[in-house]
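Model it.
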Amino acid sequence: MLGSERSEAGDKIYERILTGIKFEIELMNARVNWLLTSQAFLFVPLAIGAEGRPIGQSPLHPHIPLLGLALCLLLTVSILAAALRVLQWRSKLRGTAYADEQMPREFSGVIPDTPIIPAMAAASAFGIPLALVSAWLWILLSEG
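Modeled.
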């Protein structure tokens, strides 16, 4: 059985799993960094637009907070998608010689077909640009 004992082939399987996990964790980190950066940039115009008044009286209120909320939700969904994929990769370790189980099973590099995960990841890939385009269009159209 492939993966039932530590071997060169087992080492390659283990390396492939770790590479998959590392990739997903890097995606999560990039998405969290993007989220934090975007929120910081959104707070600045909101605070500047208030010009000494309460933020609720800023001409950009509630539009900037709504944009920030939309970005938070979209990125959170894509971060969850990466976390779910990490769980799938980690489940691949169970059943290999590296899991210290009594009855290892045959390794398959194929990730289970979970259509919701790519859809969740695509939420930020398509949703964030749409949210930003909508915000810019609103700003452009409201100026006229």
